[in-house]
Structure formats: C-alpha cells, structure tokens
Amino acid sequence: MECSVKWVGTDGMSFLAETGSGHLVTMDGAPEGGGRDLAPRPMELMLAGAGGCTAYDVVLILKRGRHDIRGCEVRLNAERADTDPKVFTRIVFHYTVSGRGLKPEAVERAIHLSAEKYCSASIMLGKTAEIRHEWTIVEA
C-alpha cells in the first residue's frame, strides 16, 4: 500500500494525498495553525478511516450471514490527549444498523468480529485509545 502527500499551498497548510489506487484526498489545518479550513484535518481522516473500515466489515459479515441488512451508519466520538503527541485516548463507535428482522446477537457478533479480528484501523487505534462499541438496530 502506498500514498503520497504533497503540500499544495505555500500560503497555508493545505496538502493533497494521492492513494496507491489513484484517489485524491485534500487535507487542511485549522486557521489558528496556519490553515484555511478548506478540508478535513489529518486526524479527522484517521477517525473516518476507522469508521469506514468497521462499517465495511459489519455490512460484509451480515450480508455473508444472509441477514437482511439495509443500512449501516457509524458515528465516532473521540477524545485526544491534551499534550503532544495528541493521540486518541478514547473513541466511542456507535453503529446504527437497519434491516428486516436483524437479530441483536448477529449484529453484536459482526461488530465484535470487526473490533477484534478484521478492522485493522480500529485495532491499531486501540493501542492508544480506550474503545467502546454501542449499537442500535432499526427495523426497515
């Protein structure tokens, strides 16, 4: 896996990342840090990556189990250390999974498998952060 990041605005703190698969992502800093607030912060993208990773796992696990899943949203709420390096210290993942006749134990199992075995991003973040998983099931 590869990625390149290039500073793209000598008048601010904007960066352009190009992933190994050829996709582009813009990042920017907060105004108080010299940024222009035009794009997500790098740490926000790390959090989004963990959310995407686990959502992918949960949907795939439930689909493979032939559960009638219709939607999956993961909201993440994170706290960071007060001093440098300002790593994540606590992250709550709240899943809202919708479908028809979804069994709570199936959803719980999918989330557990993602958290403990498959989601590299959240497992890596768990090395510095206390991670908690919550979920809600919505009948579609």
TrEMBL record:
It comes from the Bacteria. SUPFAM superfamilies: OsmC-like. InterPro entries: KH_dom-like_a/b (IPR015946), OsmC/Ohr_fam (IPR003718), OsmC/Ohrsf (IPR036102). Pfam families: OsmC (PF02566). NCBIfam families: PRK10738.1 (NF008009). This is OsmC family protein. It comes from Pseudothauera nasutitermitis. The lineage of its organism: Bacteria, Pseudomonadati, Pseudomonadota, Betaproteobacteria, Rhodocyclales.
